[in-house]
Design a protein that fits this description.
The complex is a heterodimer of chains A (294) and B (549). In chain A, strands 1, 8, 9, 10, 11, 12, 13 and 14 form an eight-stranded antiparallel sheet that branches. In chain A, strands 2, 3, 4, 5, 6 and 7 form a six-stranded mixed sheet that branches. Chain A is 23% helix and 36% strand. With 294 residues, chain A is an alpha+beta fold. Chain A is elongated and about 70 Å long. The interface between A and B is large, with 69 and 75 residues.
């Protein structure tokens, strides 16, 4: 039996097998701001500590969130920053970590984020001992990432705001498999490691045929499987859970207007976000069976 | 210009007669070619082109065999087994299905003969479970678990299912628990625990406490709320589940207003008619609203023994206090001092018969940090009778950890109040010296008892208690006693590997300006300094002391 698949693709995507786009880069940073530590650690030592802690932060977060490329060394499209601050307590200070984040240079509000305690004001504070400080900071950061509630908050308040395909040309940010009634993200399925409980949010701006003005729409997607063959092989195939384009009310799993609205003639802007992320901790499994040997 | 075009791509015929479509058998292929062939087999299976996959795999296996590429050959056998397993899906004729599955098992065994792999053992175990060989299934799945690897929690879950099928529910439950321990992020594994543990409520709740303590607070909370919603368990178990909800809330980070609009608050609202936990659930919602009157929280305040620790986790009253204190800390961090104070006072007084010493101390620390000495004095006047009473009750029931908490709170508060004043008599209970000495003694006794009983837990007194007590001794004209306390404490901290704390309590001894040390003291000090990590010595200027002539 022959299967025919209708693809709406960029010219280049048709001409050659589509390579998966890189995952969006998110950088990590660490800053020491607590006054006693700034005063007692030399600038070089402090810089070294900050670099090491930025790498530690990237390593921790990478373990749990695979859908972005974490880097401690180069600037990314977004940044997750930890700052060690001192909160005055009489003559001493409590030392805490504060989170900050930016996406596209714009700061996000992380009001409900925890502020993990590093030292109480009555504790010994190694203000001129970088190795001791680094050991303690590492311990605090690891304990924080062990908390599932913290990881959920990180996803909810920061990572869901990071566009996944912003670095890809507009026309390649989402592709339509019309016959399959599926959409394809130009990101490697293996790299994404998203279970089907994850939710991708697509926000787009389109000018429908014969309409006078552009309108915003939304699509909720569920990652399903890798594309098995053809030029899009290995990319992430997604099912549509909900499609909204006013005046259309949210509609179910598919609407024929999806392809129309995402066509180059109509599409004016499109961003994809990982709204909810459930990491696939058992890759290459299906039900109770392993589908690829180790 | 980049633009979309509509293209109709026609894929290769999907399920053409596979063998005919293949090229003639090649000479032994290099490993890279075989690797590509493996990928092709995998892709064909994923696309459901099973006949083609089988043909490709057979050819690949033969080629790999000729090339002596054992590892690759075993992988081709794996795919041959997988292809048979897939082929059996949906076949309703049972003898045919069994025959196909047995062939699949045969391929998996051949794969294993060439190279043992956990994935192959797992898939073989699945076939055996389906073909009426439960013992063999369990054996192979157990081997898969033992080989472990990245998918260990997956194998554990499958083993649990096989054990359950064999009627061994306790063993299945144990495997589910191991699955969670192996991969705490595996949501299926926790579902497996909740499903398999229904028949063992005590063990299930104990495991939920374990997970909550290990950081799985959101997952544990979900599980507890699910079980509560299902009206599962006895009244006592349900109270414990709600206690878990309170404890996990205390370890989460959120804004109270946001929480009231969230799913957990909604779930708790649905429990309000539950005779066992309804009132407690309602209290948790009040706590996030504006109700701060301790009398309204009697449900929580009266639940829990005072004469002994909870057999696992904590008593409801303690979980509630932990939550109220956490909300107080969050309010303080947000600059809401009034809110922080109200939460801490609520934690302190939710049990009318026993004040929470930790909440009182946190409140005192809040005042001390803000330099509100008059408030510390007022707090002491208000809370001292209840703290002394609670301490006495804790002594009567030998609750040494609680004894320690009461002495610690009183000691720190008295030390703050005595600052700048002549020291109170150390024999007088209303003094920093008395309380701090007893706090350290309680910790020591607790630790000795724990060691005798083989328990790993211990109380480590924070260095500030040592410093405050040493300061009191010095102020009272007993510098030698102060020095001895510092040296003994430093030794203990070093034994626990906490060089940082040791350095903190030793530091005043390194200050030559305070006068000459007795020779024995000086020797002990220098020996301890020598045991400190180099960085500790440097940062504290803790060098072997040179006495002034």
């Amino acid at each position: 039996m022959r299967r025919r698949v209708l693809l709406i693709l960029a010219v280049c995507a048709v001409a050659r097998p589509a390579a998966a786009a890189d995952l969006p880069k998110v950088s990590t940073a660490f800053r020491v701001q607590a006054a006693d530590f700034v005063a007692n650690l030399s600038p070089a030592t402090r810089a070294e500590l900050e670099t090491a802690m930025a790498a530690e932060l990237a390593a921790r977060v990478r373990q749990h969130f695979a859908f972005v490329d974490w880097t401690a060394s180069t600037p990314g499209a977004a940044e997750l920053r930890l700052t060690m601050v001192g909160e005055p307590r009489g003559l001493a200070a409590r030392i805490l970590l504060e989170f900050g984040a930016t996406v596209g240079g714009q700061p996000l509000s992380l009001a409900a984020f925890p502020r993990p305690l590093v030292y109480e004001h009555w504790d010994s504070q190694p203000t001129n001992d970088a190795p001791a400080l680094q050991a303690r900071l590492t311990e605090v950061v690891r304990a924080l990432f062990d908390l599932d509630d913290f990881r959920l908050r990180l996803q909810k308040e920061f990572l869901r705001a990071v566009p996944l395909t912003e670095h890809v040309p507009l026309e390649e940010r989402l592709m339509v498999l019309t016959a399959d009634r599926r959409l394809v993200l130009p990101l490697s399925w293996d790299a994404l490691r998203a279970r089907s409980e994850s939710v991708l949010l697509v926000r787009f701006l389109a000018l429908p045929p014969s309409a006078a003005e552009e309108k915003d729409g939304e699509i909720l997607l569920r990652p399903e499987a890798p594309v098995r063959s053809g030029s899009l092989r290995g990319l992430s195939r997604c099912a549509v859970d909900r499609f909204t384009f006013p005046p259309l009310d949210p509609v179910g799993s598919w609407d024929d207007r999806v392809a129309q609205l995402l066509s180059p003639a109509a599409l004016r802007g499109l961003r994809v976000f990982m709204d909810e992320y459930v990491r696939d901790v058992n890759p290459a499994t299906d039900g109770t069976v392993v589908t690829r040997p180790e | 210009m980049r633009a979309f075009i509509a293209a109709v791509l026609t894929l290769a015929p999907a399920a053409a007669p596979a063998l005919q479509a293949l090229p003639p058998g090649p000479a032994p292929a290099p490993p890279t070619a075989l690797q590509s062939q493996l990928e092709e087999v995998e892709e064909a299976i994923q696309r459901g082109e099973l006949e083609r996959a089988q043909a490709l795999a057979l050819r690949g296996q033969s080629t790999a065999h000729e090339a002596g590429a054992t590892d690759l050959e075993s992988q081709f056998f794996f795919y041959l087994g997988l292809e048979r397993q897939r082929s059996a899906t949906g076949i309703t004729d049972e003898p045919t299905r069994q025959r196909i599955l047995k062939k699949g098992a045969d391929y998996y065994r051949r794969s294993l003969a060439l190279k043992p792999r956990a994935s192959v053992l797992n898939n073989l175990g699945q076939i055996e479970a389906e073909t009426g060989q439960p013992a063999e299934a369990v054996a192979h799945l157990t081997q898969a678990v033992e080989m472990g690897g990245e998918r260990r929690s997956f194998y554990e879950r499958n083993l649990a299912a096989a054990l359950e099928k064999r009627g061994d529910a306790p063993a299945a439950f144990q495997r589910c628990r191991e699955a969670v321990r192996a991969q705490p992020e595996d949501r299926e594994a926790l579902r497996c625990v909740v499903r398999a543990g229904r028949g063992q409520p005590e063990d299930l709740v104990a495991f939920l406490w374990e997970r909550a303590g290990a950081g799985g607070v959101a997952a544990t909370q979900d599980a507890a709320l699910q079980l509560l919603a299902e009206r599962w368990g006895s009244d006592a178990v349900r109270v414990e589940l709600l206690t878990l909800v309170a404890f996990t809330l205390s370890r989460q980070s959120y804004a109270a207003g946001e929480w009231l609009e969230g799913e957990v608050a909604l779930d708790l609202r649905k429990l309000s008619a539950d005779p066992a936990v309804g009132e407690g659930a309602t209290c948790l919602r009040w706590l996030h609203g504006s109700v701060r009157d301790p009398a309204r929280y009697a449900w929580w305040g009266r639940r829990g023994e005072r004469s002994h620790d909870a057999p696992r986790g904590m008593w409801p009253r303690e979980a509630f206090r932990a939550l109220a204190r956490a909300l107080g800390r969050r309010a303080a961090a947000a600059g809401d001092e009034g809110g922080a104070e109200a939460y801490l006072l609520l934690a302190a007084h939710v049990d009318r018969e026993e004040t929470d010493p930790r909440a009182v101390l946190e409140l005192a620390d809040l005042y001390i940090a803000q330099g509100r000495k008059a408030e510390v004095q007022r707090l002491l006047e208000q809370e001292a009778p209840a703290l002394f009473y609670g301490k006495g009750a804790a002594y009567r029931t030998s609750q040494l950890r609680r004894v320690y908490d009461f002495h610690r709170a009183l000691g720190v508060i008295y030390a703050s109040v005595e600052e700048g004043r002549p020291p109170a008599s150390p024999q007088q209970p209303a003094s920093a010296t008395f309380q701090l000495e007893h706090a350290l003694r309680a910790a020591e006794t607790y630790n000795e008892r724990a060691q005798r009983e083989g328990r790993p837990d211990r109380i480590v007194a924070e260095p500030r208690l040592v410093n405050l007590l040493a300061g009191s001794y010095a102020k009272a004209g007993s510098p030698a006693r102060a020095d001895d306390l510092r040296l003994r404490s430093a030794e203990e901290y070093l034994e626990l590997g906490d060089g940082d704390a040791a350095a903190v309590v030793l530091r005043p001894l390194g200050d030559a300006s305070r006068g000459t040390l007795a020779p024995a003291t000086r020797k002990r000090y220098e020996l301890l300094v020598a045991r400190l990590p180099a960085t500790e010595k440097e940062k504290r200027n803790l060098v072997p002391r040179v006495e002034r002539p």
